[in-house]
Amino acid sequence: MKIPLQVLVVQESDDDLTNLLAKLDAGGYAARFQQVQTEEEFGAALTEQGWDAIVADDNQSEFDALSALAYIRNTPFDIPFIVVSGQGGEDHAVQAMRGGAHDYVLKSNLCRLVPALEREIREAEVRSARKHADDAVNRLSHTDQLTGIPNRVLFYDRLQHGIDIAQRQHHNLALLVMDLDRFKDVNDTIGHYYGDELLQQVAARLQDTLGDEVQGLARMGGDEFAFLVSPCDVACATELARKALSVFAQSFQLNDHRVKMGASLGIAIYPQHGVYADTILQHADVAMYRAKYANSEYAVYDVQHDPHTSDRLSLVNELEQAIADQQLLLHYQPIVEIQSRQVVGVKALVRWRHPKFGTLAPIEFIPTAEQTSVIQSLSHWVLDSSLDQLAKWHRAGLPLVLSVNLPMRSLHDLQLHDEIAKMLGNYGVTAEHLVLEITERTMMVDWLDASQMLKRMSSLGIRFTLDDFGTGHFSLGHLKKLPIDTLKIDQSFVAGMTESKESESIIRAAVGLGHCLDLTVLAEGVENRDTWDLLVVHGCDKVQGNFICEPMPSEDLTYWIKHSPWSLVSQAKAV
């Protein structure tokens, strides 16, 4: 039985075509020919039929073998191409092979045609198999296997290409990096299988929502995604960020579980925030973590908030000495009880009078310090200094309650209980006048050790506030097991409650939950009268924010308390 063979022939002479057919027939092939004589016919034939081989005459009046080779080089086709020639010169053969021919056969030696075709067809099959394998490896190496979207490797290439184009065309490029909030809770609570499914759903929503507006969407690893758009400035990028974050408006269905998720997103702009791919990626990451730390949905890179610059990294090394050199100071912000409209306490907030950078707010150095043991020295200084000031207020007849942030490393310090007990004794302050604020994120790092430490310190009479409540790290089960007295609603919800029904609903639910558990509810970040009025309507107990008073040094606050319309409560009321 003869082997079928599809051959495209560039040939004008019917006699030559008949000779070709005879040679193939004698070689055991049932050849089907299509004869073409012009470029238009050749191009049409290529796209209409899958050819096993092309045989072309190099001596045609209108469209010859070299012309056909030049044409096919600009196409994706890889078809065995054999030139037949009536000219015996070596130069003709070299010219044909340089043009891309796979073999060169003289018409006077046409018996070579069949073995040449067989060899080239086999080699084409090998090339095809190798190409498919290479394509598969390329897809695997550039595609995230879980979500099916590009991975970090391909995204980096696209970013570099985008930067090259932006540089040539003198326009901006925006890079956005997104990280899911509380993704670890999903894995830990309902399992990694559903965590993977959640990532797939997030990727699908991002693709549907962003569509053709971005040049690249990729999963960078873990629960981090990235995309870029060009040309795009800060205004364009922030609008795109809001659109991307809208995919979390609806909860995710994971089998029988409905999961409400959020995300933090960082933005970096070329060339404003860097001209190299690595730099822009790093700065977008910094902005993303800035957004996460500040409980803001997105943030644009700002070098002043970058703990990874050489100047910022040096701050950690300087902080220990800064404590010894008395470069730190405390500001205090009043806490007011809504029902009585009276000051019931103050929140201590550290500042750093840096000789080079000026006065630094906590956000400028605490996130970096929290990664090292220096945070314990800082926490000890804040506690000691603020308790000293609290004792002075008490002696002056101002029965305030002091609230102090307790960072993660301090909460896991086995000596903390004894140190605080010693400080309280040294300054003659009763434990009931000290409130330690802990965040949901801090507690979830090591739940068992942290909860045991809280219970131990609670035995002294110290009270605890759960800060950043509403950001979602905590379960109700965890909350019921801790000696928490107050829920402090995160300022991101408070700030938006006058404009967002969703934020207002969260406030209402948090107040209701707190009261059901017999807890006090405090809202931070109260900036205006409208927010105050809504908190009154929803039954919130206490507030803290610039609507009452901005943070200020102790001397200024003492004067403010004595002369402000927010009168000081009695000792009994404060406790």
How would you sum up this structure, described in words?
This protein is an alpha/beta fold and 575 residues long. It has 3 domains: 138 residues, Response regulator (Rossmann fold, 3-Layer(aba) Sandwich); 154 residues, Alpha-Beta Plaits; 265 residues, TIM Barrel (Alpha-Beta Barrel). Helices cover 47% and strands 22% of the residues. It is built from 23 helices and 22 strands. The strands form 4 sheets. The chain has an 8-stranded mixed β-barrel with strand order 13-14-16-17-18-19-20-21. The longest helix is centred in the first third of the chain and has 30 residues. The relative contact order is 0.06.
Binned, the helix content reads: 40-55%
Mean pLDDT: 82
Could you give the order of strands across the largest sheet?
13-14-16-17-18-19-20-21
Number of separate strands: 22
How many distinct folded domains?
3
- The name of the CATH topology of the largest domain is TIM Barrel
Largest sheet: 8 strands, mixed, barrel
Number of DSSP helical runs: 23
Overview in brief:
With 575 residues, the protein is of the alpha/beta class. 47% of the residues lie in helices and 22% in strands.
Q: Can you tag this structure with a few keywords?
A:
single chain, TIM Barrel, Alpha-Beta Plaits, elongated, 23 helices, 47% helix, 8-stranded mixed barrel, 22 strands, 575 residues, Rossmann fold
